[in-house]
Structure formats: C-alpha cells, structure tokens
Amino acid sequence: MDPIQDQFVRRLEERGIVLSSQLDQFESYYRELVSWNEKMNLTGITEREQVYTKHFYDSLSLAFFVDLPAVERMADIGSGAGFPGIPLKIAFPHLKLTIVDSLSKRISFLQHVCDELKLEGVELIHGRAEDIARQPSNRDSYDLVTARAVARMALLNEFCLPFVRKEGLFAAMKGSDPAEELSESKFSLKELRGQLEKVESFSLPIEDSARHIILIRKTGSTPAKYPRKAGIPAKTPLV
User: Fold this and answer.
1) Buried b (16+ CB within 10 A) or exposed e, 110-121
2) What is the mean pLDDT of residues 167-181?
3) CB-based contact 49:137 (threshold 8 Å)
4) What's the rounded mean pLDDT across residues 115-123?
5) Full-model pTM
6) Less Cβ crowding at N or C end of the chain, within 10 Å?
C-alpha cells in the first residue's frame, strides 16, 4: 500500500469504514478514469491524490451518515463518471446498484469499469431521469437514491424522488451551504412526497473544503403527474 492509499484507508477507518480487498479495484478505477478521460470529458480532476480525495473519499462520505449495510437497492441519478455509485458499490459489494445517465458515452465507460472491476449487480441505464422514473421497475422502488453535484434541489427532487420507495431515502451530495436551495425547494418536496430529515456537513481532508449531504425521507408514493416530461422540469422547476 502506497502513502496515498494508506491515507485514504486510515481516513475512512476513522469514520468507521473498513476496506480490505477493495484497494486494487479503486486503483483500477483510477487508471481507467484517467485513460478514458483522454478520449472524453469525464472529470477535470486527474491527479491521483485528488481523485482519491475529491472523488473516492467524497463519494464514500455518504456512508458516514447513512447505514449502507442496511440498504439493498440503490439508484445513482446523473452519475457521470460513476460518483458516488461505483465507489459505494466497491466498498459495499452487496448493493444492487442502478445508474442512470443521459449520455451514452458515459454509460459505455461505466460498463467498461464494471467489467474491469468485475462488479456484479450493477444495472446501467442510458436515458433521461424523467423517462426512466416512469418505468414500473424503477418507480417508487429504491431504498436509497443519490445525486452528486447534479442540479439545484428544486430540480433534483423531481429527478430523484420518483425513484425512491415509500420510507426510502434520497441523499443529495452538495458542496457549499445548501440553505438557499432548500428554501426554494419546499414546494417541490411537498409535491413529490419528500420530507427533509437532516443536513449533514463535513470537510474533505487535505484541502478542508466544505461538503453537505441533504437527506430526504419519502413519505408516500409519487403522484401520477410526476415526473413531468423530459426537459420540462429543467425549464420550469417546481418552485
């Protein structure tokens, strides 16, 4: 184990996450991310220590506040290069993970990563969240739904809450203080049967930058009219 991986493991252990055989998978993920990034825009962060901190550690931070061993089905919406879904799947192999992304090239990258890392129980769906959430197999179905740095909360609620089962959890992973976003998203929460449970905050190691995780509990089934047709939520968010 080199110094970067050693720091990565120790910082996670301080927060109660123990990695054993998964370090080779994280290193393979890093190599594939950098390699594919030369052909397509996956991330602006490619320096190894930064990837381990700003992508891997940041993704796994959800497990500081959510009981991941108790989660069975998880969906990651707008996953991009696979964050937080793939790091969480590596650390918690029991998760049945569904990733939804609107760009087919990113789905191709994620399929390659899953093949290289031999990840089982991962479903990759190319499409718009508004369309996929209307499919019976995905609607009101997941224990946990995540979105990391995708959009403002009023929009995210309509993208993500339709996937969450009743009493399930939606976790929105943010950088700066989300107080303003939460204020403007009150109507969308009510419409989409969500209830703000808590907002957790912490700082990334090394650079000490702020992170916030918004946890929303689903209180009932998604009303039939939501989500609206693809493109409409972004043009006219529920505010």
Assistant:
1) beebbeebebee
2) 95
3) no
4) 97
5) 0.96
6) N
